[in-house]
Fold:
Amino acid sequence: MTDLGTTTVASIEALFAAVRNDYRTWNTQSFPWFRGEPLSTKTPLLPVLFREPGKHDENRLLQQFRMKAPSLGLGTVPPRDHTDQWLFLARHVGLPTRLLDWTEGLLVALLFAVYNSQGEPREAKDGAVVWMLDPVALNDLSTPSHRSRENEFPLPWVNDPTDQTNRSELLTALAALADDKIEDRAGHLVGIRDSIPANIGAANFIRAWGGQLKDLGTNLPIAVHGTSIHPRITAQKRSGLISEWPV
Structure:
């Protein structure tokens, strides 16, 4: 990974000061996201699915998890077709997926940096690092043709507009049919459909469930808010990056 220029701190106060100083240089109203990891990790900022290429069959794991989850004592499970909720729940209980967990809480990220998954303090030799991300800027890099609004993220459950007609498209099409100045109405209607941007969040989710379209998804990860399918997801203020390929 390219050296991004890290800042070493020795106290929580110094951590808050470093975050404030960096955030001021961003010139944005978007809230930063944070991720805590051991400094010694060999795969920083990489989803579990991509840490050992070819080791896991993501779709097979997800399908088996969806079949067995009702008997695992997880409480309420999502309806079978709510694939975004299933993916977030699978990641929450530890399945290797293309999701990378982030949080809007700085201290939550710090906790994950200094404690392991069993709730035990990490060894001093492992070190600790807290990453800071501008998620809206990342989405703008992932989709240069579409600028995101501050603190606004794609919805992971909305289908690509080419799959079904939405209300705006239908109203525009009806207006075109009534406009005598439009000679090529069929071509005009095709243009309306082509002009609707794909939902980049949902596209990457579809690939996790076995979608095979080669042009589906993005080369860079997409930042989306996590669907609060479990109380701990809400408590940890978790969001995530949904990746198409490793970064």
